[in-house]
Structure formats: structure tokens, C-alpha cells
Amino acid sequence: MSRVFIALQDNENARFIVEAIGEDNPEAEVKHSPAMIRVEADDRLVIRRETVEEKLGRDWDTQELQVDMISIGGNVDEDDDSFTLYWNS
Amino acid sequence: MNAKTSKRLNMKERYRIMTRDLGWEPSYQRYEDIFPQEGFEGIKITDWDQWEDPFRLTMDNYWKFQAEKERKLYAIFDAVSQNNGQMKISDPRYLNAVKLFITAVTPLEYNAYKGYARVGRQFGGVGARIACQMQSIDELRHTQTQIHAMSHYNKYFGGMHDFPHMFDRVWYLSVPKSFFEDASTAGPFEFLTAISFSFEYVLTNLLFLPFMSGAAYNGDMNTVTFGFSAQSDEARHMTLGLEIIKFILEQHEDNVPIVQQWLDKWLWRGYRLLSIVGMMMDYMLPNKVMSWAEAWTMYYEEAGGALFKELERYGIRPPKYADQTVIGKDHVSHQAWFIFYQYGHATAFNTWVPTAQEMDWLSEKYPDTFDRLYRPRFELLAEKAARGERFYNDALPQLCQVCQIPLAITEPDDDTLLSHRDTVHDGERYHFCSDGCRDIFHHEPEKYVQAWLPVHQILQGNCGGADMEKVIGDYYRIEMGEDNLDFEGSAEQRRWAAWKQAV
Ligand SMILES: [Fe+2]
Ligand SMILES: [Fe+2]
Ligand SMILES: [Zn+2]
């Protein structure tokens, strides 16, 4: 088992993205530090477009994540509907 | 998939069309003539089509998102300068970290821009070429936005006025410079392993995240904003770094030992380079976020641990000497600050003894080492300074032939003994800070015998003359009494007090 993580700028978008992550990954752990939010989970973390759109109340492209994201740990798999971080080991 | 996304091409299709479809098979030139550097490191690529960019980013979206990042960034720069942002920082000592950043790190961004432009040209695979092209443009953006961010501080503070000139000449800046030039003069696959993987994937979090959080915590809005904006590109670079390593390892089993040697080398090179960051975190941030040791545990031992476990399946083991970095994390920032303190007349920033309160924080964060080894040293320096005998060292230090850091770092198994290795090559004796640096030399002695070592160059008379005032003032362009020396009694301290009174 290994930890995957994503760090986001602590801004208006990120609040809703983090809320969506929490809903889709109930075991994820959220850590706040000055100006940034880090979300960690064991082995796998999924960000779903539909959940983020519901929280933001507008259309959201998974690639928009690139504007708010500041770091990640894990392999990435991204398509139109979701952004996934995972470790194989 | 719902109706909205199916109206246009999906991300995977768009990526295929905008990358693979831009390539072509050469008909009248030989492949080896078009990509002459692809083979000379011994790396075997059997199928470039296996290359995937997990973000599937295409040029159209690239411009769209980058433009949005720039709009946000420059709005904040404007706000900072319109509101006298320089007065909002926690303590004027903080700005010294920014001076170190613009002289040591920003030029690396520029070298990264050149490096990716060069290696991108050398790969037969279109996916790799496009990824390198985007990264090259990103790195140029980082250079420019950092210069813009700091140009505001340059109007008010010293030490930032001549950063490209200093990068090419000043003794401690030869550490980052030689690190990057070592990568840039390697073949294209070693460059990617060194910069995309070892530096960006494994180590860049240690540079940007704690430091940017630190900038936020010390009221430096410009730095935190460019930092996070750059880091949003960096998250993409990191992913690319991991994909590159997996791609090379999957292509051929003969690639494994070559990559392993590069990983051993570049983790050690990166670790030594980041001593400077450790010192910034522990000594230069008046409001502290986390200690260097904590950052190393979190970003190298934990995040790196997960990573190397993932790479085990390819036959890769954790980098050689990784255990020495874990021992070193309790020492390196203190030893680095002590080097800069004693050579504080030859630095383009101010140095100081930590305050009593700061020393208490260091004791708490470094329970095994600070009170035993470093507190007595700093207390003695404080006493001397109070007597008007602020200690400056006029003897030039011996430098490591590989990392170029003064030989003032202790042995991994004896923290009271300085670590020193040497070897004879072609009748000349060369000196090293560690087994790690000596191994790197042994692997490619012809490369490292050519190192431009600042101390040797001064002694050979190549740096403006025999007296140190000339070297520091004329050759480095560090203005005596303005840019350098102790913070106590500095021009910076006087100006800050005057501005605060005027407010
Ligand atoms: Fe960069
Ligand atoms: Fe980068
Ligand atoms: Zn060394």
C-alpha cells in the first residue's frame, strides 16, 4: 500500500474540487497548509467531472484541473470524465 | 458518456490527432541522421508509439490553460505593486531568500527551457517531441514570470540587480549552475532522467511546496503566486518524468542498468543541490512552515518510497546512498548556513545568527543534533558579533570536484568529522565531499576534470585579481556593504526601519 496525493492552490475552485473528492473518495484525507490544500489516499484517488460540476454549479473540463493543481504523487490516468491517481504496487 | 462530451472529439482522439498525426516517416534521409543522439547513450527504443502523455494535453488546450494562468498571475502582480506589497512581508530578512531564489533558481528555469528545446529535437517519437516542446515553453514562462515577480522587489532591495551575471560567476551559484550544465551536456535520455524524473518528480516538491507555503506565510504574495503558477506546470512535468522512466524501462531490459546508474547519480546530485533549500527553510524564513528534516521525510522518504516501490517491478532499486540523505537531513541545513555565514562578505544577500527564539525552534525540530552540535557554534558567533568581532572567514575553502560545495559537510557515520575523499586521475589529485560525488567522478572522469571550480579559478587569477575585494566587487558585482555582510547594521535594515517609520 502507498499513498497517492494531489496538492491544490487554496482558492475558490479548489474548495469545490476538494468537496467533490471527499464525496467520491470517503477515505481521502485533507490537509491544509498556508495557501495550499493537500488530499491523500491509499493507492487510489478519483476526481469525477460530474461531481465537480455539481459542486461548482457549472461545466468543468477535467483538464481545467491543471490551472489549480500544484503537485501530485502517483500515476495519472485522465479522460473526459475523470482524473485518477494510482499506484500499482 | 453524456451528450455534452460526445459532440466533440474526446480527449484520447484529440491527443492522437494532435500528436501522432503530426509525425511522418522520413523517405529520403536516414532515421539515424535525423536523430543522431537517440542511440549514443546505449538506450534502446523499440516502439515510440508506446509513449503516452497521461494528461493527453494538446497544443490548443495548452494555450488556453496557460493563458488563463498568466491572466490570474499578472492581475496579482499588479495588485502587489499598486499596494506597496514589499511592505507587507514579515521581516526584511525574509527577502534574502528571494535574492537567493532569483540568483540560483531562475537561471535554472532558463537552462531548462534551453535543455527541453534541445532534447525535444532529438527524439524520434512525436509524443515525446511535443511533450518536450510544451515543457520548454513552460520553463521559459517560469523564467519570465519569476523575473517579473522579483522586479518589484528589486526596486527596493539589494542583491537582485545582476542575477544572470552572478549566476555565471559567484562561488555558491556554481553549485546550481554546474548541476544543470552536467545534465545539459549529457545525452537526451540522461537529461530527461536527471531533470524530468530525478529533479522534477522526486525533488521539486522540496523546492517549491515548502518554500512557496513559506512565502505565503511571510507575506510575499508575488513569490507564492508565481510559485504556484509555475508549479501547476510542474505537476504536468512530474507526471511526464514518471512516464519517461517507465517508458525507457519498458522498452528494453538493457536500459535498466543504465537508468539505475543515472538515478543513483542524479538523486545524489539533487540532494547536495537542495542543501541550499534546506538552509532557506530552516534559517532564512522568519515565519517557518516546516523544517527541512520534516520536508525530507514527507517528500523524499514517504513520497519517494512509494515511487521506488512502484519501480521495483522493472528491476530498479532505491538510489544508492539514499540512506545517507536520511542521516544528513538533521545536519545539512545547519552546516550550509554556517558556510554562508562565514563567507557572508562574498554573498549577494545578508546573513545572521538566528535569534534566541529561532534557535529554540531549531532545538525542537532537531532534538538529536541542534543543541549538541550547532547551538554552541551559533551562540559563540553571536557573542563574537556582540563584541564587534563578527566572524568572516578569509581562507578560501576546498571544493568538491563534482557538486562544487565546500568540504564542510560531516561524515554520515561521524557528525564531528568533516567528510573528505580523493582520487588520482591522470597524475592529478581530485577532492570530493562524499562517496556519492566520488562515484560520479569515477564513472566519467573526463567530464569532471573540466569543472570550473570557483576557488581554483580565483587562485589561478581568473576572477579579477588576487585580492578578494576585487573578486567580490568587480568580478562578482556584489556591492560591498550594500548587498552583502551581516543583516545587523546592513543598508537593508536601515532602509526598512526608515520606511516603517514613514508609514
Ligand atoms: Fe520550471
Ligand atoms: Fe519544470
Ligand atoms: Zn560533492
From TrEMBL, chain A:
Molecular-function annotations in GO = monooxygenase activity
Query: What is the organism of origin for this protein?
Result: Bisbaumannia pacifica
Note the InterPro entries from the entry.
Answer: MOase_MmoB_DmpM, mOase_MmoB_DmpM_sf
According to UniProt, the name of this protein is: MmoB/DmpM family protein
The UniProt entry's sequence similarity note says: Belongs to the TmoD/XamoD family.
What does the UniProt keyword field contain? Monooxygenase, Oxidoreductase
Q: Which Pfam families does the annotation name?
A: MmoB_DmpM
Q: Which domain of life is it from?
A: Bacteria
Automatic annotation (TrEMBL), chain B:
Q: Which GO terms describe its molecular function?
A: monooxygenase activity
The record's listing under Pfam families reads:
Phenol_Hydrox (PF02332), YHS (PF04945)
- Where the record annotates domain YHS, the positions are 409-452
CDD domains reported in the protein's UniProt record: AAMH_A (cd01057)
Task: Could you list this entry's UniProt keywords, alphabetically sorted.
Answer: Monooxygenase, Oxidoreductase
Protein name (database record): Phenol 2-monooxygenase
